[in-house]
């Protein structure tokens, strides 16, 4: 049994990733209950604040993806309520959730990340789409990868092989956000490296290699069983695996993250990892990457979640202001 009295798992929300969040929350709740922990799972609706005030949990596990779950907003509310939670604080979340900003931060500490252009929808329209897109192709070359500057689960993201494909990719991107990040596409092995910190500093779990059956790790490939093959640990040489681990830990530290994160990378043909983005609330579903990495490291997911909650509760007791 745990010393935790009762914990709250937040899942759902109103972002495009609501269904994934509900699945993540259900998984975390199940593995915690299996350890005998009293778990309450709640959505982020108007009843949340009164409920927390009436019966404050010992700690909160945030499994909200996208929007308020990762942009720092819900964590700001939890701090206003003086409730401890697993994960990074609001300021760090805001920086990490904005992909262009996160890329700038990791680049400033020497990490390799694809060349890119950030383009708000207004600029795209005001300056003339065709002229702007032509310059992007001239500058970055082809192929390209287009994705919303904020958000996850590959929603609105697509690979662009030809200049003719770029306008449609931009329209698809803007359906999920007002700003597009257009990156030079790096061909290679896609891996995800989860980082955990249980009090002794951030440590990388084994990298997970991602091989989607259609070549693109899109929403369906991420959350539909059988659409993607995973290798945990990734099929990398020890040297390359170590470089990926170092990059993930460096990104976690540079961005000021806490407790848990997942960094997505591409390893090029020369064995060099390239930073793509970081997730402050990694997916916890049956097909998510952090649980796979934990298993590859010989860690029980429920025990890991419990340890993170206990650490959050202890941190709050030591520093009541959060």
From TrEMBL:
The keyword Cytoplasm applies. Residues 103-310 form the ATP-grasp domain. GO terms for biological process: cell wall organization; peptidoglycan biosynthetic process; regulation of cell shape. The gene is ddl. GO terms for cellular component: cytoplasm. One of its GO terms (molecular function) is D-alanine-D-alanine ligase activity. Belongs to the D-alanine--D-alanine ligase family. Its cofactor is Mg(2+); Mn(2+). Mg(2+) 1 binds at residues 264, 277. Binds 2 magnesium or manganese ions per subunit. Coiled coil: none annotated. The active site is at 17, 153, 288. This is D-alanine--D-alanine ligase. The keyword Acetylation does not apply. Keywords: ATP-binding, Cell shape, Cell wall biogenesis/degradation, Cytoplasm, Ligase, Magnesium, Manganese, Metal-binding, Nucleotide-binding, Peptidoglycan synthesis. Its main location: cytoplasm. InterPro entries: ATP-grasp (IPR011761), ATP_grasp_subdomain_1 (IPR013815), D_ala_D_ala (IPR005905), Dala_Dala_lig_C (IPR011095), Dala_Dala_lig_N (IPR011127), PreATP-grasp_dom_sf (IPR016185).
